[in-house]
Amino acid sequence: MIVADKKPVEEIIGYVKDHEKILVLGCNECVTVCEAGGKKEVGILASSLRMYFANQGRDIVVDERTLERQCDHEYLEEIRDIADQYDAIISIACGVGIQFTAEKYHSIPVYPGVNTCFLGVTEQRGLWTERCQACGNCILAYTGGICPVSRCAKRIMNGPCGGSSKGSCEINKDLDCAWQLIIDRLKAINRIDLYEKMFDIKDWSTDRAGGPRKVVREDVQI
Amino acid sequence: MRLTYPTSIRIVRVPCTGKVDVAHLLRAIEKGADGVYVVGCKEGECHYKKGNFRARKRVEQAKKVLSSIGGDEGRVEMFNLSSSDAPLFVKYAEEMDARIRTLGPNPLKKKNSRAA
Question: Domain tally for chain A?
Answer without folding.
Answer: 2
